[in-house]
Each structure stands twice: as C-alpha cells, then as structure tokens.
Amino acid sequence: MTRIERLSRSTVDRLDPAVRPAIRPGETGTGILHLGLGAFHRAHQAVCTEDAIARGGGDWAIAAVAPRSRAVLEPLLEQDLLYSVLTLDGERVRPRVLGVHARAMHAASDPAAVEACLADPGIRVVTLTVTEKAYRPGSEVLGLLVRGLRARAAAGAPVALVSCDNLPGNGRRLRALVTAELGESVADFVSFPSTMVDRIVPASTEATFAVAEASLGLVDRAAVAAEPFSQWVIEDDFPGGRPAWDLAGAILTGDVAPWERLKLRVLNGVHSALAYLGALAGAPTIDRALALPGMRAAMEGLIRDDIAPTLCPPEGLSMQRYGRSVLERFSNPALRHRTLQVATDGTQKLPQRLLGTIADRRAAGAVPRHATLVLAAWMRFVRGYADDGSPLPLDDPLADRLRAAPSLLELDAVFPPGFADDAELRDQLDSWGRSLERHGVLGTLEALR
Ligand code: CS2
C-alpha cells in the first residue's frame, strides 16, 4: 500500500489550482499577529485575510500564536503552516488550502517571542480569538498583550487590537482591560475596533481529517470544516492600515453594535438553547437537537416572542428572514456540531446570549416564557445529568462555584442584579424546572405546543 503524503509546501502544487492557496505561501510580508489558533480563526479571519491579500495586496500575512495548547501548532508546523478549510454544503464538500500564515508561536513556552512580535512596528493589526473567559483582569492573554504593548510604547507605532470574540462591545471591553493596566495614553497609538464575527466552525475530529484526506489526496492533520456562511462586520478604525477585508466580503462600518446584538441574541442565544435542551434530551448534535419534536416551534417562539422585541436590527435587515436563516444554518447535518461543545462555558456566554433578552423583556413588563425555559434547562444541565439519567460534563471556569451555589440566581458573576428578587421570574423558572423534572425536555416541549 502506498503511503499518502502529507500536505506541505512541497506537495501543495499537486492540488487542483482552484484548491491551492490564493497567495503564494511565504511570499507575503507579515502584518498581523493573531492570538488563538482554534478552528474558528482558521476558517474565518484567515480565509478573509488571504482573500483580501489576493485581491488588494499588502504585507498582511499572519503570525499566529497558540496561547497554551500545542495540539494545532504541531501539525501546522509539520505542514509548513498549510491546512485546508472544508466547506460543508449539504452532501458537497468544497476544500481549499490556506497559505496565509507566515509564522506560528507557542506563548506558554516562548512568551518572549510573542512579546517581541507585539513590539514590532511591522505588525499593525493584532486579532484575537481567545474565547469569552480570557476577557478578565489577570488572564494570560491580557498579560501578553500588556507586556508586548509596553515594549511597543517606546516607538509608539500605531496598531489596532481587534477582538473577534462573541462579546458585546468586544473592542470597548478589551480597551478597558488594557487601559486599566497601561493607562489611557496607550490609546495614542492603539485602537480597539469592535467586530462581529460569524461562521459555524465545529471542533475538528478524526472524521474531519478523513474528509480532508479524501478530498485533497493528502494527509491534513490541521484541517477544519465549516458551514458555507461567513460574516465579519468590523468597526473601521485602523491607525496602522488594514488588509482590504472589504474586498473579501467583510462589512466595514462605523457602528457594529446593532450587528453584534442581533448575532449574539439570535444566533448564539438559540445555539445555546439548542445545546442545553438538546443535551438534556440526549441529542448529540445541534441539527439533531433542532429536529426533536416541538423544538423548531419552540426556537421560532423564542426568536419571535422573546428576542425580536429587544432588538433594533441593522438597517435593511429583516428580523424574520434573519431568524429563519439561523435555523436553516443550524439544521445543516454535515456539520455535526456537538451540543456538548456549544454547552461549554455557560456562565461566560449566557449573560450576552440570553440574560440580556430576559432582563429587557422584564423591564418591559413581560415574562419571556421561551427564554426562561432555556435558563431552566441550563440550570438543570449544571446539575450534571440528562433526562435519561446519563452524566453530563460541566466544562465551565466557574464549575466549582456553580456546584456549590445553593441558588444559581444568587451568583452575581453571572446574573444581573434583580434576577434573584424577581418573584415572577422565579415562579416561571420554578414551573419550568418542575416540568423538566417530571416530563423531561420532550414532554415539556410537547406541552408548549
Ligand atoms: C457557538 C459559537 O460554541 C459556541 O458557543 O455558539 O461558537 C458559534 O458557532 C459561532 O459564534 C458562530 O458564529
């Protein structure tokens, strides 16, 4: 049997020209430092940046940093930083190989290299996909940024720090964290544009690598699979310049807030809803959760009755159509996005995905039934077992506090003030809790119809 070769610079030219990188790997100067080498970055910003360079030029290749884990770094290094993005469109797989990464570093073992890169005036944009939990004082990523910017301050070369994590006002948040350490004067040379990012990119598995091998004819241990949809809305504030992301489909705007709120409350809110309700009901993936009897109607009700009244969508965008497209995207069976993956870090995600919706509806005097059902489902999920009694993992930075809390609503790190004293809200939550206990998710959804 002949051994199938590895994807690398020496094998990439065997691929169909349409599948090869849009730029010659290694021939573009580096202008971006990216923190967080997860699947999302590789299928989102990396793709948009490579297309922007191919269409608009510029020295914008990416130096990428894996903060802690070497799991993606090693295969990428073995493949000369090449990897494929497999777009899963129904039965069709559309592969393309990316070659936009010029360098890869490991922050945990070599923080000095990352700090030197942050201080390098050639780096004019720093992008971050480091997940919600990194946005707190004292996080490792913040430490790296602060040390790097301190070294950069002497020359003061302009740079934009671009958060690409699912948080409202992500730029403002990052700015508050950085200026708390370095003072306001850092904003003389650093900007903090907010962005809204959107593409469903599940964690890669052996099945992803098998599909990559079948479609490339080469082994690719750094492949990622993603849905066809991709969106990036960016506040246009780049003192040191930026790639021509607009030529690659990104929306550059003066105000990201309406986009962010829409995406976080509808797409991510419903995603988390499907994750907790689905996991309790034993659905392994998001599409299977959505296909459970009564689930689609419940999610439509959540969007229509609870979320939509709290939103003011960007001009020209129909809420109804947006909601429908989100459910359509979640029903993609090829993605096999695990409910348990989306269910991780609930304490970091629920405030912007669900609790804001509940708070806004309560302020308007309404009791949002569907949204409180989702909150009750999360509370049940936290207890650690599914409707059939099988164990459910609790992967959350506040797991210990969640387990120890006599009443979850009292956790002020998660819930806005007032939740615990809201008798009507508590009644509704208790009622859903009892229903879930007696009838499980399926019986509860049945009664909702
Ligand atoms: C998901 C997101 O894992 C999660 O919590 O809701 O990663 C989601 O897939 C992306 O935000 C889609 O843009």
Task: Please describe what this structure looks like.
By secondary structure, the protein is α/β, with parallel strands linked by helices. It folds into two domains: 12-254, Rossmann fold, CATH 3.40.50.720; 258-448, Orthogonal Bundle (N-(1-d-carboxylethyl)-l-norvaline Dehydrogenase, domain 2), CATH 1.10.1040.10. It contains 16 helices and twelve strands. The protein has helices at 39-43, 45-56, 73-78, 111-119, 140-153, 170-182, 206-216, 257-281, 286-290, 295-307, 319-330, 339-342, 346-363, 369-382, 399-404, 423-448; strands at residues 30-35, 61-66, 83-89, 92-98, 101-106, 125-128, 159-163, 190-191, 195-198, 224-226, 231-235, 251-253. The strands form three sheets. The protein has a six-stranded parallel sheet with strand order 5-2-1-6-7-8, sandwiched between helices. Strands 4-3-10 form a three-stranded mixed sheet, sandwiched between helices. Helix 6 links the parallel strand 7 and strand 8 (190-191). Helix 8 runs antiparallel to helix 10. The longest helix is centred in the C-terminal third of the chain and has 26 residues, at 423-448. It is globular and about 60 Å long. The N and C termini lie far apart (57 Å). The site of D-mannonic acid (CS2) has 9 residues, from helix 8 and helix 12.
CATH topology of the largest domain: Rossmann fold
CATH class of the largest domain: Alpha Beta
Task: Tell me, rounded to a whole number, the average pLDDT.
Answer: 97
Molecular shape: globular
Helical content class: 40-55%
Separation, N- and C-terminal Cα atoms: 57 Å
Low-confidence stretches: none
Second-tier CATH architecture of the largest domain = 3-Layer(aba) Sandwich
